[in-house]
Amino acid sequence: xxxxxxxxxYSLPTPRLxxxxxxxxxxxxxxxxxxAYKPILGFSRSLPTSSPAxxxxxxxxxxxxxxTTVETSEEEAQLDDFEESESETKQESILxxxxxxxxxxxxVLNKDDTTASEVEAALSHIENEKNTLFGxxxxxxxxxxxxxxxxxxxxxDFDNFRKRSEKERLTVRSNAxxxxxxxxxxxxxxxxxxxxxLKLETEQEKKIDSSYQGIYKQxxxxxxxxxxAVVPTVGKPFDPSVHEAIAREExxxxxxxxxxxxxxxxxxxxxxxxxxxxxxxxxxxxxSKSVDPATPASTE
Length: 300
Known about the structure:
Elements: E1 18-19, E2 30-32, E3 59-61, H1 79-109, H2 113-197, H3 203-225, E4 228-230, E5 243-249, E6 259-264, E7 267-269, E8 272-275, E9 277-282
Parallel strand pairs: 1-2, 5-9
Antiparallel strand pairs: 2-3, 4-7, 6-9, 7-8
Helix pairs in contact: 1-2, 2-3
């Protein structure tokens, strides 16, 4: 007689052999008269262990429940209970196989071909189930490995996105600051011109100049707090990236290529140029005029 198929959630039990009435037990290993009822081979989830009865007039039969399920909790709090249950199930599986082998040995000794064939079918089904579960474990392991690799890639992509977003945010902020500060630079020029043109003669004019200097100083402090710096000019080598040359002049004081005068201040926001400085550049010392030896000296 063929064995009933196992469910994927089947946990192997330990069969129990008991001397019973002809009424066949649904969950326990039982004996019955050979003329009363034919044995049914199946699987049961929870069968207590017991040594098989020694009788040649009774045929052994094993009954296993078909619709068995292993209840596993979906809550993380019950994870320990699930692992403990899994360990117990593994032990029960080992005991079940041992019991089946012992039963098969007795059936061979008693020349009970029916029971032997049923046990062989059960062992074959267990082997097939084991191979199926092994294949599922292998597939799940590969899937878990692939999922881990995808997670690592997603984590790297997220880190790159976060860094790129932060860089873009700082760039937008710097551009906004630059536009605002650049619009205020003409006011700095006006302050500088007014400072040069003022001629303090009376006490009232001195008070006005003092108020003006206070406002200008406060404005400069605000610009400095925003990391605004002045482009260095006089005495520095001409740099076309921050200087705008509007004149070139011979100079005995400065070598060629050195800034000798500033016409308009330039400003930097951090490392970003807001406005180049307008400067005059030295052309070096001029050639001195020498007397031509071929020309005779004039005599009086």
